[in-house]
DNA sequence: GATGAATGAGAATTCATTCAT
DNA sequence: TATGAATGAATTCTCATTCAT
């Protein structure tokens, strides 16, 4: 299962598009094969089964996603700057791949246990990035210590998630990234006077 | 049809459980019928099709959910108190019906357009409750006016959603409601010093 | 199963219409019940099952049909006149009940053996009427004796049947009865010079 | 798809038999698949749906049927001879494929509109053959000009149809073809002295 | 490796019939 | 008699997966 071979990539890219357009359950393997210009059977040389396609798509895409985010953050100094960068990268990358946004926001919310387990494994490393920023903030004495850091992370991720979902649901009609600073402000300072 | 007839309720309750256990797509109509102690065909006397079951379950349950929330909030004075009550009610009610929590957190994220449209209609009235609290806060001069109220709502809902999802994913091993005040504090004041 | 009770008639009449409109297989018992203004279950007080409705409709209607034909023929003297009357009655009666025409021409051609057996039993007495005309014609020395009388009957009935079917298929757009004399001429004299 | 592939033929032949034995409505797709020695799903690689099987069977078989008839007729000179040949071919071919006879005589009288439309399209080209014979007869001054040619055609087809139906209903106990000349005589000269 | 025809398990839905009221 | 809610057997069609070429 050499992942460098062109067919593997073709299938992954085709799968993202087909799933974004039709949803996971309405995405027949034959449809993905057609869009990828390979035979149905070929899919099974690269993926164990249909579920494996979804997981692989997510791992693959989310891997790049995280890598880029980590890299961008590493260029910033303070936790505050890093958080802003994190938010910006989140919005920027999903804006650039609306297909991916649809897949992550809607299609990955499957409750099939095995599927979720795999998805969460990948998601966890993304959440770890947030955790590390919070940790640094605590060390820098910038973040309040009387709050459960897990809750902070859940607020950050939940807010990003919801804003992206809203954006996807509204057919991506406005520039997501424009919200980054306001969201950053909102998260760090709250909305009460 | 007549929503008071016992079979209707039986089917709704059975559907919630079966969907929570298996996910919507793995929930065969025959499984729901069996759990509801009715014949397969009986389901179709009360629901147009399988999708209609999901929508009806959601409308039915979310309706009660919202009603209770609205009632609880109406007994509070200030926007701040109301928000806390909102959070508490959200956690309390989902804690009491973990099946429902699973259905709402995971199964409703379907991307099938007609399905989403119906779901969003119901969800909207829940989001309206948040909006009305924010509006009151602005009138009471308690909420900062330089922030997009929609973003505030997205942060509130996103945070609640994510904290519940985390709780569901961790098999509901801790009392959700205990987080209410801390989350309220976090949302209103942010986490930065 | 008193056939004089009003519900029996209501159901028969409703059945003729529903079957003519939808075809036998698409005619749900519940549809017939609705049109007859009775409950589904009531049907089964008067008919053994759905098939029995079809057969009863046919017997009932065809019975009248034959009675009227026999009566009309009995008023004529010669075989030749009787045949013309037969043709006229056939066309006249089916013209007056287009529903019945549709049912007899299309819906009764079911090949389900038990069904056909019953239908043929009724049809036979109609064919007997033709046979008796032919017999009289032979006795009157008006009909050629070197032809198999059965074939003659098949030609007569086949021709009537086909002309009615054509008329039904063309949505009954012309007056069927106008053809009677020409068909009579054609049958008795053939079309060759 | 490719009509030369053996499975296509297998399914067509199996369908003719199964439909002849059970009637269209009682012919489950699975029964046809079994008799054709293919999997149920394979049927759907070659046919759009169950209805498509019936139409295809008819087109396929009737196509050959008509071709042979046309060929046989073209070898005859006069309209009179051609008509005799037409009758002979009709009887001969249906005698040789009693299954087909049953299907055409009984099963194709479906009133489902889309189905009939397709069937009539094919049937029409058969009726056209009769029409062309009549036309030639008129040109040769052999057929009476004061009769509606459409009626002549209806008499010819109706008579053939009815004689075949009778033969089918009587379980094909006599040689159909023996009647050809008598029927020809009957049609052209009528039965009156 | 690549193909794509073939497979067949699986699932939603319909509707004739029953039977408690 | 009459009702109509409830039943559940029956059937079409889909689509992930296999495997001979």
TrEMBL record, chains A, B, C, D:
DNA-binding region: 28-47
Pfam families: TetR_C_4, TetR_N
Start and end residues of each HTH tetR-type domain: 5-65
Keywords: DNA-binding, Repressor
Molecular function per GO: DNA binding
Domain of life where this protein originates: Bacteria
Name of the protein in question: TetR family transcriptional regulator
Organism: Pseudogracilibacillus auburnensis
């Amino acid at each position: 299962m050499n992942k460098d071979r062109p067919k593997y990539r073709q299938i992954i890219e085709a799968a993202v598009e087909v799933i974004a357009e039709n949803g996971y359950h309405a995405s027949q393997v034959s449809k993905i094969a057609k869009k990828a210009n390979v035979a149905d059977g070929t899919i099974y040389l690269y993926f164990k089964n249909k579920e494996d396609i979804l997981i692989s798509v997510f791992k693959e895409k989310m891997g790049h996603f995280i890598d880029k985010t980590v890299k961008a953050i590493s260029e910033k100094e303070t936790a505050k700057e890093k958080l802003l960068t994190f938010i910006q990268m989140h919005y920027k990358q999903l804006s650039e791949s609306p297909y991916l946004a649809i897949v992550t926001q809607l299609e990955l919310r499957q409750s099939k246990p095995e599927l979720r387990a795999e998805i969460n494994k990948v998601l966890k490393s993304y959440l770890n990035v947030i955790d590390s920023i919070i940790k640094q903030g605590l060390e820098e004495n910038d973040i309040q210590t009387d709050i459960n850091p897990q809750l902070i992370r859940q607020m950050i991720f939940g807010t990003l998630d919801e804003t992206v979902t809203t954006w996807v649901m509204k057919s991506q009609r406005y520039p997501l990234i424009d919200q980054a600073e306001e969201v950053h402000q909102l998260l760090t300072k709250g909305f009460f006077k």
